[in-house]
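Q: You know discrete backbone vocabularies at least as well as I do. I have my own habits and do not want them to colour yours. No explanation is needed for now; the record alone will do.
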Amino acid sequence: MSQAWFEEWFNTRYYFLLYRNRNDSEARAFLELLVRHLQIPEGTKVLDMACGKGRHSRVLAQLGMKVCGIDLSPNSIEQASVYAGPSLEFHVHDMRIPFAQEQFDVAVNLFTSFGYTDREEDDLSTLHAAITALKPGGLFIQDYLNAGPVLKQLPETATLTRDDIVFKTHKYLKMPFIVKEIKVTDAEERHDYREQVKVYSAEKLKELLQKAGFTVEAVFGNMELEPYSEVSSPRIIIISRKP
């Protein structure tokens, strides 16, 4: 059976190379604000679902949380595990499958790590896995792109060079997905990869969360936790709670 695009692409060195300039200081500022706003105390047990190389997990651990990061990519978990310690651990795990039962106070799914497949059932499985992992009263924090402003810029092409490796990207709408084709030229080697995420509205995400059993408490539109606008907000940040 062939690999899903995310199983292949997220586990390549080219993925890390293309996105190596992601803004870690912005992620830190967002999490610090979020922890203050939600009054999450030190010692809170947090599950970071689709943690990648663990940049959000590391910040949460530095803020006093006990963090467990899970990700489908062995390469990501190998790199994240360099930072593992008494309050920070990482595991290779598919977030669509329950990882634990009522062990965590908070679960997070950040940076649009969701909506990858053709099957809405996969997304519901992820949300069911989140609510299963949480203790009663636990919080789920989901951060997803707001498609409105993105769609105005499509189609979009770009060429980037990283360490003499050339990335040519083409981003376009093919409903229900925003698709990004990535062509890699590495000396004499040529590789083709793809990313895709569903165009989910805030209302649809809230519907899925409620179907999974969550109660939605708040929706923000950016990492400064300002009010959400379908037209102009860059993000959809939803705070939900397990009853």
Observations:
- Residues 95 and 126 are 6 Å apart (CA to CA).
- The chain has two domains: 5-146+201-241, 150-195.
- The longest strand covers residues 134-145.
